[in-house]
Each structure stands twice: as C-alpha cells, then as structure tokens.
Amino acid sequence: MISQDDRSSTRPACWAALLALFAVAWGGTTAQPAQSAVLAGLGLLWLLAPARRWPSRGFAISASGLIILSACAWLPARWFAIEPWRRGLGHAGIPIPDTLSPQPHLSAEAFVWLLAGLGWLAWLMDRTRNTAARRAASRLLAGGIVLIAATSLLAWRAHFSPPGWLSERGFGPFPNRNHTGHVFALGGVLALGCAEDAMRRGWRQAVAWLGGAAVVFIALVVNYSRGGILLFAGAITVRAALIAWQRGSWKALALGASLVLVLSATVLIAGGATAARFAGGADSQVAFRAAIWRDTLSLIHNLPWCGGGLGNFRALFPFYREASVIQQSVLHPESDWLWLASETGWLGVIFALGAAVSVLWGAFPWPRGSQRPLRGAAFAAAVAALVHSGIDVPGHRIGSALMGLFVMAIARRDTPGLPDSRLATALSRFCGVGALVLAFLLARETDDAGRAAALLRSRQFPEAEEAANRALAREPLNWGAWFTRGGARACRGKTLESVA
C-alpha cells in the first residue's frame, strides 16, 4: 500500500516530469513562448508544491558560490584589467556599459535561467526523495521520451513536422540533433532501468520497457548524432560496472560490454550515414571542434578571473578566433564546461562540478531494497551526461538541461525522517512568485533584432533603423543588428553614417 505521505509526494514529482517532457516536446524550449511557459511552470511548482527541506550542505555551498561568481558580471569594468577588445571597441566608437559584462541585459537573462536550474535541482532533490515519487517520475519520463522518439520516427517517415518542432534535419524536437540525441539517450537508459525494476514483478512489463528502449535506440541511429549514441553506450557501461561492484561479480560488466559491442556492431552495419560519421566522414567535424576549443581556451586565458559575464561568449569569441576562422559564426564552444569557464572563469566550473558531485554523492550507499535498478540507471545516465557535456552543450539548452538535472535527482537514495523547514518552504514559494513575474516579463519582450531584419527586407527603412537601435541598446555587441542598421541607413541615403 502507498502511504499518504508517498501519495502526496508522488503528485508533484509527476507534474515535474510532465513539465520536463513539455520542455523537450516544445522544440526543446528554444523559442521565447516556450521559455516563458516553462518558467511559469517552474513557478507554479515552487508555489503550489514548495520544497519542505533544505538541500545538502555541499550543494548549497557550491550553488551559492556559483551564484555569487555569476553576479560579478555587474561589477565595474575598471576593477579589472582592460581587455584589448574593450579598447578596440572604444576606438571604433561602439558604446558599451561600464560593467564587466559588456551586455548586462543578456547577463541578467542568463542569470535568471541559472537560478531556475539550481532551484529546479534543489526542488527535485526534496520532491523525489522516496520510492513512490522516484518510480512514478522515472516511468513518466522514460515513457514520455519513448513516445517522443516514436513520434519522431513516424514523422520522419511521413515527412511531417509536428507543431513546435524546429529540427533543421526534420527529425526530433530540438533544432540541434545533438540535443535530441542527448535527451533520447537519457530516456532510453531510464527505460532500461524501468525494465530492470519491473522484472521483479513480472516479465511482461519488463518486455514492454525493453521494447521502448529499442525504439529509442533506433531513433538515436536515425537522429544522425554520434553524441547521443556514445552517451547511451557509455551509460550502459557505467550501469554494468555499478552492478558488478554491487554484486562483487564482473559477469555483469562483461554482459554490459557485450551489449555495447552488439549495439556498436548494429550501428556500423545498419547505421548508414550515421556509421559514416563515426568513420570520420566529411561531416565528422572533429578537427574543427578541436580548433574551437583551442580558441576558447585563448579567450578564457585573456578574460578576468571571473570570466566575461553570463551570456557573452557569442559576442566575445570572434575577437579570439584564430584556429577556427571560417566564414560561419560560432554560437558556442562545443562544451558546456568551456562555455561556463568563459563566462564565470574556472572557479565557476569548480563550483558547478562541486554541486553535481554533491548531488550524485547522495546516491551512495546502495543498500538492498533501495530501488537500485532505477537509481543505478539514473546514476549511470547522469554520469554519462556530465561527460557528454564536456564535448557538447546540452546544459545550455533548457529542454535537455531540465532532463539531465532530473536524472541526477532520481539517482539519490531515500532520505526519510528529515525535519521540515518553514523557512525553506517560504523561500520556495517566494521563488515561485518571482518565477511567475519573470515569466510574464519574458513573454512581453520583443525580438527587436529579428524585427529589424524583417523590416529591412520589407523596405520599411525608418522602422528598421528604430528597431535596430532598440536591439543595440539591449545587445551592443550584436553584429547582425549593427549590419541591419547600417543597411537601413544606406537605403535612406545616410551613406556616411552607414559606412561608420
């Protein structure tokens, strides 16, 4: 029988799982309406089902350090050594604020999402702390990802794009195939954990979950992303190693390695274009990724100890491009950890890793009867996701980040009997109200840069210049907005101003 306490904690965990799936299914929460809706959903969770206990001390210290470090973006720039690019912009007549962050408005937006991610993880650690909540959330997450993967396969075969899906290749909800692969891999590993958990109650449920994992694996192959397949295989290997350690038998590790070999052979034999990417085909891009990493390290080396401010990588990276110079712009450094280091310094990476280790440390020990199949699968998925974030940026996409943080919380052991805290509950509700207010403000924001470009194409030159001016007041290093404004001025006969 499920106790009243278990039932009351299961409902919030299920609503949270639905919110994470919603964030994935609505284009990975890349568009502004989806971001506003997800932020409002977080606010409602924190307000109506507030956290009742404080997170662990290690997590609280690490999260506080990361927050304080990120807030350095609003310190006066004169407190730090003047970077060459800042002097160059001054000589070119491009005005930027006197704060460390050259775009404090963008830093504020990124800061809100950093707080949201840390708050989400702290809330999950409290609300998925028992067996009933963990099992319900795991099944809902795994089943939802299986459903999304199946929908992706059907839409791909029918050449149909579901509403809100933004994939450039026509497969999956995310614009970037690597983010789609990341989420699918996490869901597939959770499905395997659900199969292992269900095996104790009957083989029929286990077979259904194994079938779901097979659907996810097929979707990973079709998705054309190496990262998702490697994450899936790596998580299986970690899970097998964990079982071998728990049972004191290396047969489980050998079995897991055999399964990984079978999956690898399947990809190489039947993977088509995906297999060619593993073989170093024309679309492998490994060398270019290494060049981006090299230039990013140069950027980090030349920035202050606390980085260049959240949200500024895209604007500052062009000043340090040498090895990765091509005609295309670079939106991110192909690594969550390098991205974080460029905006908060290496100390920010240490704090973030400290928070992650603190959360996963709560998974130990692994006594019998502590739901080891589900927790072990989530732990393996979380470890593999952390490694994958070193060579990709799933942590900077809201849909994939919420999913990754969820599996970290599921991996933790039961923590019954901890005292409730009225202050923690009050703080959770306060954050909920704040998130709702910020979601409303975010929904009211307009994309002035995009609007300026559209107005320029429709030959509405005065309106295009005004929209570009508003965009540059918010993002003074948005080079696209500068180009749009110059084009609008040139078409209005302001040739000298346009050239300047």
Describe the structure.
- This protein has about 500 residues and is mainly alpha-helical.
- Helices cover about 70% and strands about 0% of the residues.
- The protein contains 21 helices and no strands.
- Helix 1 packs parallel to helix 6.
- It is globular.
Termini separation: 74 Å
Unreliable spans are 1-5
Count of beta strands: 0
* Cα-atom radius of gyration: 24 Å
Q: What coarse outline follows from CA principal-axis ratios? A: globular
Number of contiguous helices: 21
Give the class from helix and strand content and strand pairing.
Answer: mainly alpha
Report strand %: under 5%
The overall pLDDT, averaged over residues, is: 87
Order of helices and strands: HHHHHHHHHHHHHHHHHHHHH
> Sheet with the most strands?
none
Q: Please bin the fraction of helical residues.
A: 55-70%
